[in-house]
Amino acid sequence: MRRVELAQRFAAQAGGQLDARALAPTLLPGQLTPATATALAQAESGPTALALLLVSPEFQRR
Q1: What is residue 19's predicted lDDT score, i.e. its pLDDT?
Q2: What is the pTM of this model?
Q3: Dihedral of alpha carbons 15, 49, 30, 3, sign
Q4: Sign of CA dihedral 39, 13, 22, 61
């Protein structure tokens, strides 16, 4: 299974329980790039934003 597919499945199961936009600065303090923050803000849904956070370069470096 690919990393993106896994992130999408996890995000779909989490549903609206996790807000990636609020969670990102907590998980990645000082590491969140403007590009990733913009992508999260423009995500069409909460699960999509969470999937984007999980596959972001900043999160992958952790």
Answers
A1: 85
A2: 0.82
A3: positive
A4: negative
